[in-house]
C-alpha cells in the first residue's frame, strides 16, 4: 500500500460532533494517507487533487451538522433527514450530492425481535459522510472491509460506497437467514405437545412483527442499488460495476427470501389454527364418548329406581341383572368408541 498513513493530532474538544468523536480518513491516488484529522480540515484536503475523504459522525445534532454542511455544501433538507429518526430507506438526489438512508439489521435469536440501526450517508464527488444516531453500527467492521479491498481504493467514492452497501446487505442476508432458522424452530413447536399455545403465540407474534420490519428494511435496497448503478449518476465506474452487480444480486436473493418467509409465516399460522381445530375435535369426541358411557348407568339406575313393581323387583336376581346391564353396555360402548378412535 506504500507509505503508512500519518495520524493527525488528537482532535480538539471544539471539533467534537455528536456523542462520539468524529472519525476521518483520507485517501490519495488510492492510498490511505491520513486519518483522525479535524473536521475543519476536510475542505482543505478536498482542495488538493486526487483526494477522497471519509467522515463518520455518531449522534450529531442538527446545528452540529451545519459545520459539515459548510465544509461540503450539503442541502438543508438532507441534513434534516440525517438527524431525523425512522426515515424510510431511500436514495435522494440533491444539487452536488446524494443522500442515502439505510438500516443495519440483527435478529435477536432468543426473543425473535429484529434490532435495527439507522445509517445515513452524504455522497459527493470526492467525499462520503456517514451519520448514525446510535453507536451500535460496527464502523470498525466497515473499515476492515475497506482495508481488505484496498486495491480498489483508487475508485474513490464508488469504493467507499460499495463497502458500506456490501456490509449492510450482508447483514440483511444474515438476518433473513436467522429468521428462516427461527421459523423452522416455530414449525417444530407446532407439533410439540409440551409447548403451551400461549408461548407459541407470543413467539409467533414477535417473528411476524420482525418479518414486517425486515421487509421494510430489505425491499428498498433493491431500488437504491439499482439507482446507484445508473450511468447518468456517474457514481459507479465501469470497473466497479461487477461489484455493485454482486451486491444487487445479494439484495435480490434477500428480497425473494423475505417474500417466501412471509408466505411461510402465513402457512404456519393457518396450520396452527387447523391443529387447534383438530385438537378441539379430539377433545369433543372424548367428552361425548364418556358422556354416552355415563348415560347408560344413569338410565339403568333410573329405571330400577322407580317406585313401581318391575321384573325382578325385590328379588336378588333383579340386582344382578341391573349390574350386568351396566357392565356389559358400558364395556360395549367403550370398545366401540375405542375402535373408532374416539377415546
Automatic annotation (TrEMBL):
Pfam families: CorA. The chain crosses the membrane at residues 287-305, 317-337. It is found in: Cell membrane. SUPFAM superfamilies: CorA soluble domain-like (SSF143865), Magnesium transport protein CorA, transmembrane region (SSF144083). Keywords: Cell membrane, Membrane, Transmembrane, Transmembrane helix, Transport. It is a multi-pass membrane protein. Residues 1-24 are annotated as: Disordered. It comes from the Bacteria. Belongs to the CorA metal ion transporter (MIT) (TC 1.A.35) family. This is Magnesium transporter CorA family protein.
Amino acid at each position: 500500500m506504500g507509505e503508512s498513513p500519518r495520524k493527525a493530532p488528537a482532535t480538539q474538544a471544539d471539533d467534537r460532533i455528536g456523542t462520539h468523536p468524529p472519525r476521518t480518513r483520507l485517501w490519495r491516488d488510492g492510498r490511505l494517507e491520513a486519518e483522525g484529522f479535524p473536521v475543519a480540515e476536510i475542505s482543505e484536503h478536498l482542495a488538493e487533487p486526487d483526494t477522497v475523504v471519509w467522515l463518520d459522525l455518531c449522534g450529531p445534532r442538527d446545528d452540529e451538522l451545519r459545520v459539515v454542511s459548510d465544509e461540503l455544501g450539503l442541502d438543508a433538507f438532507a441534513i434534516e433527514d440525517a438527524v431525523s429518526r425512522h426515515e424510510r430507506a431511500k436514495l435522494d438526489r440533491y444539487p452536488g450530492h446524494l443522500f442515502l438512508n439505510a438500516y443495519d439489521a440483527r435478529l435477536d435469536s432468543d426473543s425473535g425481535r429484529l434490532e435495527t440501526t439507522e445509517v445515513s450517508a452524504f455522497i459527493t464527488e470526492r467525499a462520503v459522510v456517514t451519520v448514525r444516531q446510535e453507536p451500535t453500527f460496527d464502523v470498525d467492521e466497515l473499515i476492515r472491509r475497506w482495508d481488505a479491498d484496498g486495491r480498489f481504493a483508487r475508485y474513490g467514492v464508488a469504493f467507499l460506497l460499495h463497502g458500506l452497501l456490501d456490509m449492510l446487505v450482508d447483514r440483511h442476508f444474515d438476518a433473513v437467514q436467522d429468521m428462516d432458522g427461527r421459523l423452522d424452530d416455530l414449525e417444530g413447536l407446532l407439533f410439540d405437545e409440551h409447548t403451551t399455545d400461549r408461548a407459541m403465540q407470543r413467539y409467533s407474534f414477535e417473528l411476524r412483527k420482525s418479518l414486517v420490519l425486515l421487509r421494510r428494511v430489505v425491499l428498498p435496497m433493491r431500488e437504491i442499488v439499482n439507482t446507484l448503478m445508473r450511468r447518468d449518476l456517474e457514481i459507479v465506474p465501469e470497473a466497479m460495476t461487477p461489484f455493485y452487480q454482486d451486491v444487487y444480486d445479494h439484495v435480490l436473493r434477500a428480497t425473494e427470501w423475505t417474500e417466501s418467509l412471509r408466505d411461510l409465516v402465513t402457512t404456519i399460522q393457518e396450520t396452527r389454527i387447523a391443529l387447534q381445530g383438530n385438537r378441539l375435535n379430539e377433545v369433543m369426541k372424548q367428552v361425548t364418548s364418556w358422556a354416552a358411557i355415563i348415560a347408560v348407568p344413569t338410565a339403568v339406575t333410573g329405571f330400577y329406581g322407580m317406585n313401581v313393581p318391575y321384573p325382578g323387583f325385590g328379588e336378588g336376581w333383579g340386582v344382578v341383572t341391573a349390574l350386568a346391564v351396566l357392565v356389559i353396555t358400558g364395556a360395549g360402548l367403550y370398545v366401540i368408541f375405542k375402535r373408532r378412535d374416539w377415546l
